[in-house]
Amino acid sequence: MATEPLSQKEIEDRLRELPGWSLDDNRITRTYRLGTHFAAAALVVHVAGIQDELDHHSDLTLGYNTVALTVNTHSAGGAVTDLDFALARRVEDIAPGHGAY
Predict the structure, then answer these.
(1) CA distance 83 to 76
(2) pLDDT at residue 53 above 70?
(3) What is the dihedral of CA 94, 12, 62, 65, to 10 degrees?
(4) Which of 5, 13, 27, 87 is the least buried, fewest Cβ under 10 Å from its Cβ?
(5) Which of 6, 24, 4 minimizes the C-alpha distance to 14?
(6) What is the DSSP string of 8-55?
(7) pTM of the shown model
(8) In whole angstroms, what separates CA 84 from the centre of its chain?
């Protein structure tokens, strides 16, 4: 998968396909609110597995019943790339019913 930085327009176009995700300080980010702390912790474990599969890791923050992800590609100078959107899409696939915070 390409690690070339995406243009601002490419990022904006891809974000339209991922409701709840946004661009913040050259990172894509989303926070999920879950019903319980246990559910949030379980989501973290699943996201960690996806990150290991993709060999691409986000900053992942567990709150009481929230999980926040921020991601960019360090090997591309901290830019947003295809890898970031691949990770975001995979997370969305496992957390389809969870609302953004």
Answers:
(1) 10
(2) yes
(3) -70
(4) 13
(5) 6
(6) HHHHHHHHHTSTT-EE-SSSEEEEEE-SSHHHHHHHHHHHHHHHHHHT
(7) 0.91
(8) 7
Q: Distance (Å, rounded) from C-alpha 65 to C-alpha 47?
A: 15
Picking from 39, 11, 43, 40, the residue whose alpha carbon sits closest to that of residue 25 is 11
For the segment 2-42, what is each residue's pLDDT rounded down to a tens digit?
A: 689 999 999 999 999 999 999 999 999 999 999 999 999 99
Beta bridge pairs of residue 22: 29
Name the residue with higher pLDDT: 46 or 2.
46
Token code pair at residue 30: 């989303």
Query: Distance (Å, rounded) from C-alpha 22 to C-alpha 41?
Result: 22
> Sorting pLDDT into bands at 50, 70 and 90, what band is 95?
confident
Compute the chain's Rg from CA coordinates. 13
